[in-house]
Amino acid sequence: MDSRERTAVFEALESFRIELPSWGFANTGTRFGKFLQPAAASTIEQKFSDAGQVHLLTGVCPTLALHVLWDCPEGVNSSAEIRKLSERYGIQPGSINPTLFQNQEYKYGSFGNPDETVRRRALQHTHDSVEIARRLKSRDVSMWFADGSNYPGTANIRQRKQWFEEALKEVHSYLSADQRLLVEYKPFEPAFYHTDIADWGMALLLSRAAGPQAKVLVDTGHHYLSQNIEQIVSWLLSEDMLGGFHFNDRRYADDDLTLGSIDPYQVFRIFHEILHFEWETGTRADIAYMIDQSHNLKGKIEAMIQTVTMAQQLFSKAALVDYPQLALAQKNCDLVQAESLLQDAFNTDVRPAIQEWRSSKGLPPDPMKAFRESGYLERIIKERATQNSQGVTSYA
Ligand code: RM4
Ligand code: MN
Ligand code: MN
Questions:
Q1: Which of 9, 93, 109, 174 could potentially form a cystine with 130 if both were Cys, beta carbons 3.0 to 4.6 Å apart?
Q2: Residue 290 C-alpha to ligand 2 middle, in angstroms?
Q3: Residue 392: its pLDDT value, please?
Q4: Does ligand 1 come within 6 angstroms of the Cβ of 140?
Q5: How far apart are CA 249 and CA 307, in angstroms?
Q6: How far are the Cα atoms of 61, 146, 196, 296 from residue 204, in angstroms, in the given order?
Q7: What does R_g of the chain's alpha carbons equal in angstroms?
Q8: Under a CB-based contact definition with an 8 Å cutoff, are residues 64 and 93 in contact?
C-alpha cells in the first residue's frame, strides 16, 4: 500500500461512525425458537454496558439505537434513566425507533389499520417517541412498519397509502427543526402478500409527502434477491433523500446476518457509490450508518465487533477507488479499466493500515482479540447466566 492509499484509509476512518442496535445485544431468535445465550443483555442497562464495550474497543460506535417499547419501559419518563446510563457507559442514545408492531392492537396494522382508534394510538406512541428523542437529544426518529396483508383483496391498498401519508405528515409536524424522520421499507415479512411500504420508491413518495425533514432509510436486508441496492443508493443520493442505513447481510430473506458475511462486494459497491457522490459533488452525504442485526447463534458482542471491523474495512477499500481515473475510464467507455479500478480497490488489503490508524488513536489494533482478553464476557456470563437460563418471551 502506497502513501496515497494509506492517507485515503486514514481519512476515511476519521469520519466513519456506525450506530449499534440495542436489540442486537438481547436474546432473539427465529420464528422457530430462541437459543438463549448466558451473556445476553436483558435490561437497558446491560445493553448500554455491552454497547459501551464495543465502542470502547473500536472507538467508532458512539451511539446506541433504541426501540421504544423494548428500551423505554416508562415511555417518556424513561429518558432521565437513559441519560444516566448513557453517561455511565460512555455511549449516547442514537436513533429512536417507535415500536408499532408487537401489541395485540396492531394485528391488522398501525398507521394502515382500518380502525381509526388504532391509528390514533399508533400516532400517540410515535408522538411519545419523538418526545423521547428530543429529551435524549437524538436526531433521528426511525420508522419501520409491519403493516400489510397476507391475502389478495383483504386490504384497500390506496386507502392505506392515504392513511400513511396523513399519519407521516402528522409525525413530521411533531419534529423539532434539527430532527429527522427516517422511513424504512421492506417488501415482505411479517406480511406476505403486500406491505404498505414495500420499496424505496414508496418510501421516497411517503417521505416527500411527510415533509422536508423526512428521508429514506435503506435496510440492506429488505430487498428482493439480486436487487441492485447500490443503484437505489445512488438515486436516493441524487434526490437528496438518503437518510441512513440499517446494515446487515442476508442470503435468503431478512436474515440479519453480520455485515459482509455473505457478500462483502455488495457493501463495498454501496460505499463506493456514496464516496463517488461525495468526490463528484465535493459535499458530505449526511447519512446515518446504523447496524440492524440480531444474532441467534454468534456471541452478540463479538458479532457486533466483527461487523464494525468489516464495515471499516469495506469503507476503507471503497475510499481507495481512484476517482479521477474512474471518471476518465467512464468517459472513454473503457469498461475493463473502469471495472478494474473497483476490483483493485476491493482487493487491497487494508487491514494493516486500519490497525495503524487504531493504534494512532490509542485503540487496540485488534478489537476482537482485545475483547477476548478483556474478561468482560466471563464477567457478564457470571452476572447474567441465572437470569438468562429462565427464558424470555419478547423478541428482544
Ligand atoms: C425489522 C426492521 C426494523 C427493525 C425490526 C426489529 O425487520 O428491520 O428496522 O426495527 O426488524
Ligand atoms: Mn431495519
Ligand atoms: Mn429487518
A1: 174
A2: 9
A3: 59
A4: no
A5: 10
A6: 28, 18, 13, 32
A7: 21
A8: yes
